[in-house]
Amino acid sequence: MNDDFKPAVKTLVDRFDAQIEEHRGDISLSIPRQHVVETCRTLRDELGFEMLIAITAVDYWPQQSPRFHMVYQLLSLHHNVRISLRVPLVGNYPTADSIECVYPNANWYERELWDMFGIRFEGHSDLRRIVMPYDWEGHPLRKDYPLGYEEVQFSFNYEEIDERKPYAKD
Amino acid sequence: MGLEQKLGNMGVVTLKLEQTMNWGRTNAMWPMLFGLACCAIEMMSAQASHYDMSRFGMELMRASPRQSDLMIVAGRVTRKMAPVLRRLYDQMPDPKWVVSMGDCASCGGIFNNYAIVQGVDEVVPVDVYVAGCPPRPEALIHGIITLHEKVRGEKIDNWA
Fold first, then answer.
1. Is some CB atom of chain A closer than 8 A to the CB atom of B121?
2. How many CB atoms lie within 10 A of CB B97?
3. Residue A65 — very low, low, confident or very high, per pLDDT cuts 50/70/90?
């Protein structure tokens, strides 16, 4: 990262109780859940990060607790700098604050996180599933979600499986 | 020997109704313009000038199910797409046929998971399965010729 940004990032660390990690010049800030909206607003208004590139999440179950980490990727087109925010969430069905009021395009990303991980967002205008059908049960990208593996038909067990396989009628 | 020699002086040809109808059905079997995944690329190339499916009377891919006779399920069907697929099938007028193109449509292929229907025959009745991942245009055309053979053998009392 550009050296000009180092002091600016330092102020973020002090203000929002963040932890800083640097890997090959990429800065990643770990911030607590309650400061997400304010951090994003500061990054956008004061440091020139105009663009939200992605929000995604990682499920560390069963190795780590808290199991969910949300990851925000921000880009400053003006300075050509990228930054990522990492937000650990406590609990099996966690809630987070929506950053739709700062970056409107967060709307769909947050819907995707709700759909795939079951993370709820407070202050979201339209929290529906986005990828799976509306009546789907469960959140498929969770590590404890069953893969739904079906037994494969080979010549030795063809008949047996064929009997219970559902076929369409005309 | 051409048709005119068979006609004789009367200008009449006698044929079985079955044969005539089945002949008509095979030689103007319009597929639906409906691609789901990478198999659709092969379907398009089977349709285009290099392989030219119009040789078999299939020159028109209809963009509406109401004008088509054949549904080529080209690609994996997700559980979200399955009701849509069934609805398109229901909107096609009789008589109608289904070709399941490729491994994914036939049996789920490499996608053995919660999101993909394990064989499109769970949703619509399939006439011909074409193997391959994806099948080459020749394979698709072979599948369609096989379907034509099947249609030519249909009996009048099987017609709906």
1. yes
2. 21
3. confident
